[in-house]
Design a protein that fits this description.
mainly alpha; 5 helices; globular
């Protein structure tokens, strides 16, 4: 099992655990990581999330 799957996605976890991942070392790719990063990108573009960012910035 991927450690990021167990611990949760973060840039720090990506740096720590992907460097020791055999698949990532050999191919430079990780479908699970791509899935997580695309999910996070999609969530950031969500209208509700955008409203929160606007409110927190005071606009």
């Amino acid at each position: 099992m991927c450690m990021i799957e167990e611990l949760g996605y973060s840039e720090d976890n990506k740096k720590i655990y992907c460097e020791s991942c055999i698949i990532f070392q050999k191919t430079g790719k990780c479908e699970f990581l791509n899935y997580l990063e695309s999910k996070i990108t999609a969530d950031v573009n969500n209208e509700f999330f955008q409203e929160i960012l606007i409110d927190e910035c005071g606009f």
